[in-house]
Amino acid sequence: MPTPPSTVAAAVEANFDGLVGPTHNYAGLAFGNVASAKNADAPSNPRAAALQGLAKMRALAGLGLAQGVLPPHERPHLPTLRRLGFTGSDAQMLRAAWQRAPGLLAAAGSASAMWTANAATVSPGADTGDGRVHFTPANLCLNLHRSIEAPGSAAILQAVFADARHFAHHPPLPATPALGDEGAANHTRLCSDYGGPGLEIFVYGRGDESEAAPSRFPARQTRLAGESIARLHGLDAARTLHVRQNPAVIDQGVFHNDVIAVGNREVLLYHEQAFADAAALRAWICTHLGGARRPVFIEVRERDVAVADAVSSYLFNSQLVCTADGAMRLVVAEECREHAKVWRTVEAIVADPGNPITGVEVFDLRQSMRNGGGPACLRLRVVLDAAQRAAVNPHCWIDAATADALEAWVRRHYRDRLVLADLADPQLLRETQAALDELTRMLRLGSVYDFQK
Ligand code: SUG
Description:
- By secondary structure, the chain is α/β, with parallel strands linked by helices.
- It has helices at residues 5-10, 34-38, 46-62, 78-83, 90-100, 102-109, 144-147, 149-160, 223-232, 247-250, 278-288, 307-313, 334-338, 340-351, 366-369, 386-391, 400-413, 426-442, and strands spanning 12-18, 67-70, 120-123, 133-137, 167-169, 187-191, 198-204, 240-244, 261-264, 267-271, 296-300, 319-322, 328-333, 357-363, 379-384.
- It has one domain: Succinylarginine dihydrolase (L-arginine/glycine Amidinotransferase, Chain A, 5-stranded Propeller), CATH 3.75.10.20.
- It is built from 18 helices and 15 strands.
- A hairpin with a 2-residue loop joins strand 9 and strand 10.
- The N and C termini lie far apart (44 Å).
- Residues 26-30, 33, 36, 110, 112, 115, 117-118, 146, 185, 255-256, 258-259, 371-373, 377 line the site of N~2~-(3-carboxypropanoyl)-L-arginine (SUG).
């Protein structure tokens, strides 16, 4: 049945950003992520990190975009420490973990759930079998600190998108490397209009044995995971593609595809080395994209921006957003403006009348960037028609008043300096639990944390 035109026109692509948690730190946990390794053990500033993220949310809401917020996860995660054999009081477990297995404490204390592009894969109702928005939380099974996010993300997504008439929630895929899944960071949707049927493109680093794998760094996303999610979401096989990442870029620090490519509506912006076969991908998109708009490809050459510069500036981790006038803007990290060749490329993209991108917004997200998380890592995109939008927990939408309230909450509860040893401080645990308890009341989420149950 065709989607009625009024539904197509009313649909928006909302961004749900992860609010950075009070334990934000640099533990060097993410092998293959160059920034994470480089900043290992540096002191962090959780307060600045959360305020930087909120400034981006506030600004995008100010542009008239549908901007939501997802709360941090509880960290240090005591149930994980208990599962790993630590016993006694909270303080005893934290101390024992710090003394005997500091790597495990770092994993249980990571604020990595801020990167909500890895929280789940989301398919809009226009693409799914039953017209509901489908969510599959990512199992993130290749890294311990990220694997413990899956149940928390599932609980939070179910609390924010609670109405079963509009939203379908699947459990995360089994947590085994053969089904490694890192969520929306490896998933791109192209369409003519958000509310109309789209092309869902799943990008994987690990396919079958005949396909070359990276040799230096792990490929986190598997083809089997993408295929499973496409089945679960009831996607039309004719509008779904599984595309291989170029293993050579994974070995240069492109641990997720959103570090080297970004798509929005009919536009695909990507580095010439991003995919194993970019020409085949373009041809498929040209043949399959329906609706009034024709695809627009913006391919950035290695001679203009080397992969290493893309990784350090996060040019392709920009958000591409449509403002109310139908034009697009690029939302980039400050690091892009500081890199001469990257900035020249941004200016050229904005000046080119051959694409719909007419402006650029620059944000200081340094606290997150130092862990390899840029503008697009911090957000989960959810396409919603008017009825679905009305069914979202209304307290999770950002406007000037909620941004003010959340900033005040951050200033009340967050420290401005954290080193790894602080994760063992029982006072930090108490501060974090008090902060999150208050937050769930502000966002009217109910009890989503283990410590509240
Ligand atoms: O999984 N960094 C994250 C960054 C995730 C970025 N997300 C997207 N590209 N969508 C990761 O590599 C570092 C944590 C530390 O080292 O403390 C970390 O987990």
